[in-house]
Each structure stands twice: as structure tokens, then as C-alpha cells.
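Appendix B. Chain record.
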Amino acid sequence: MRKVEKEDKNDTWHRVERSSGKFQRRFRLPENAKMDKIMASMENGVLTVTVPKAEVKKPDIKAIEISG
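C-alpha cells predicted for this chain:
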């Protein structure tokens, strides 16, 4: 018997999936994911994968005075 539990959260890229038995899961990472900083740990049968993201540099805003 396979039991599945899902949870999605919007703000923090938080996702929970639970199932028993063998499984394989693939997902796309955002372009700004720091691939060399990805961490994974397992505790009490729960796999936690942490994918840090690089900050998106916001464009500089500069006021320009117009003469004439």
C-alpha cells in the first residue's frame, strides 16, 4: 500500500512530499540556483534538500536631470 502526502507553499519554495516504497523524483531548479551549494540530509526517513539561490541583482536606479 502506498501512502502519499503533498504540501506546497508559495513564499519560500517549500514543498513536502511523502510516500513509502521506492521512488524517483526529478524537478527543475531555478536558473539562479547555486548548484555547488545544494545540501541534502535525511532524518527519521525524511529527505530534506536545500537549494540556495543567488540574489538577483536589481538594476541601479539613477535620476537624470533634464535641462532645456
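Further analysis of this model is presented in Appendix C.
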